[in-house]
User: Fold this.
Amino acid sequence: MHILVTNDDGVAAPGLAALAETLRDLGQVSVVAPDRNWSASGHVKTMHKPLRLEPARTAAGAEALATNGAPSDCVALAVLGVLGSPVDLVVAGINPRANLGHDVTYSGTVTAAMEAAIWGLPAMAVSAVDGEGHGYHDAARVARALVGAIARHGLPPMTVLNVNVPALAADQPAVIAVTTQGLRTYADRLVRREDPSGRAYYWITGDPPSDTPEPGTDADALLAGKVSVTPLGLDLTHRAAAELLRAWRIDVP
Amino acid sequence: MHILVTNDDGVAAPGLAALAETLRDLGQVSVVAPDRNWSASGHVKTMHKPLRLEPARTAAGAEALATNGAPSDCVALAVLGVLGSPVDLVVAGINPRANLGHDVTYSGTVTAAMEAAIWGLPAMAVSAVDGEGHGYHDAARVARALVGAIARHGLPPMTVLNVNVPALAADQPAVIAVTTQGLRTYADRLVRREDPSGRAYYWITGDPPSDTPEPGTDADALLAGKVSVTPLGLDLTHRAAAELLRAWRIDVP
Assistant:
């Protein structure tokens, strides 16, 4: 099994190294990652500028390729052949914060996995709720178990697993909950400043988002100390809304 | 009704001007758009750099604000208060090409609308299959009819309308089909080149994508000469896959 490991925090991030090292038990691991941080970068396909691909090292000293492209570009480059052999599975991470609720549409980690699913590959995005301490080690352990399960069972097409791993007690087994995408509420606000010549500029900032831990959701599982595994699909059609809209009978003058 | 118009092609794009001018029949229109082209930019939240907001003009000479941020940043800036009065509805477009199938996860036009839905606003992304000729005029006409319908009926929360408008015959009324997101297949390939000093670089390029026009999909409606309106939801949970995963019983060693 040839596993591509990528992330959105850049090739030097400790979470990437932890993931790549742990997955080597399961097969050949290749690392292609951005040369800088791309957090909240969304799903990007870079066609307007050339992409560089340079030899690099992970934080664990392992061989990697670094690109000036986005996380989703790393996947496209690998699928389109820069590694010399086909990729069987893509794992993105380990993100140093949870990716919950609507985070999935912003997250470079999740959108790297989406890019892989669009190319027909099984894919997973892995986040540690707390990247400090044992966080990456625990999340990598969970990722290894899930990759093994995907290798045995297969994933349905066009499916991405969004995996969030809480801090786990050293003597406790990890309990996995298959969850739904919850509702994350952002507390963004705008800060207006003026530069030395008096021209305004703005920062989008804010407090950390809050979660509504409805039963069965990603946030609810984390609150209970469980690993949240949310299968995400790439068909975004809102079928209930479609029923409503059909009754509207809109005329276009 | 206060309508925010934005796009991903930049404030000077003709599609943005056509949309803004046509929607003025329905209420107050404000334009906040990127100062450059952000196609295939995905869902971005810019928190790592300050955002500028400068007076600008649309291609029709109307007042606008231009920002160095992404399309989704335009929505966030407006919702967070830079316009001085609250926004009731967001329309992004008019994109000069169709946004079908998986395009919705890459498209800056669609992700601007998603940002609005996350903020609790009704939102629509509008694309003309052919931006030349009458394309923008027809698409703007359709957008106006749909905004009127949303004002009358409301949209369910967390819903975005992805609207694709084909070339319409001048003497024919537009027929609207409520569709599902179809399957678009990309024909990307990699072109490797070397710079004058012999270092490799890569272009992601390829032929235009092809569509599988299954009955009821976006592409099927366009083939039949109809306007495709696909309601997209922001809960990406793949519930059928969740059922499968629950049967896996994964141990984490």
